């Protein structure tokens, strides 16, 4: 009997402990840290709709470029999108990468994306090229559009290499609408420039192709000088190309840029402090190191993915301090009290995070 009683007591105690743990976890998503009122940190802040899609077709539209057509395994129609939109691809390793939609928005059965292999990159493009074959399934978030095609009296497009992907649906749209447009398309060589044949057939003399191995770098200033007052200028490509377009932009034109790498910070890159309110620690973030990297020294299991300010995985609530936002994702409302700690920094001496 004493042995039976001990077993019963132990089982009862274990049940009480499990219930207490569940209550504690429910009270705080970062248990065992104390909970604050309505925390968002550690919960992946944003909730972007996701789909599980399969690779229906894989093609090579240019040297070093892989094109994927994605479809729903159930055959259900895909969410609508407009030119300039992109998808977040959650790769088999868990990495999240952003790729522009370059297919036909009227096609609700498939999404089309293309990516160039970056030999010295961070691994995302290599994973796409080596692992995403026909039949492979993956999670996709979006579509989202931070590069929308706006109404304008005329259009000028500048694309470099794989930067043609968000521009291609725009070209089709403005051509179908009978709008005035021109394109400057540059690349290392004609063989490395995807969709080149389609674009030249679509635009004829309105398309200027500059292959670096034949003619050097494109003359963005001369191209932009030929644009009309009120023209909308769209540019996507390497940072030097976008910088050249911004520098040469004539007055009276509107510039729209699509970046998939973080821009340079305009704030001081010096040292500042980050207080982790729930953890009870204050950390020093040195120049040249991200808040994310510094915080993960203290909280190694903190979620993150792209490290470029695009996916939103590392969004954290800011309780105090002035933020230097360097992301390409958060809305103005979200920027009031949160930040993406992979790229954004502090405009002052200290930030306080809900961590």
Automatic annotation (TrEMBL):
Tagged with keyword Oxidoreductase: yes
Entries under SUPFAM superfamilies matching the protein: 2Fe-2S ferredoxin-like (SSF54292), Ferredoxin reductase-like, C-terminal NADP-linked domain (SSF52343), Riboflavin synthase domain-like (SSF63380)
UniProt-listed CDD domains: fer2, PDR_like
Cofactor: FAD
Domain of life (superkingdom): Bacteria
Gene3D superfamilies (alphabetical): 3.10.20.30, Nucleotide-binding domain of ferredoxin-NADP reductase (FNR) module, Translation factors
Keyword set, alphabetical order: 2Fe-2S, Flavoprotein, Iron, Iron-sulfur, Metal-binding, Oxidoreductase
Domain 2Fe-2S ferredoxin-type: 272-355
Residues of the FAD-binding FR-type domain: 46-150
Keyword presence, Iron: yes
PROSITE patterns assigned: 2FE2S_FER_1 (PS00197), 2FE2S_FER_2 (PS51085), FAD_FR (PS51384)
Name used for this protein in its record: PDR/VanB family oxidoreductase
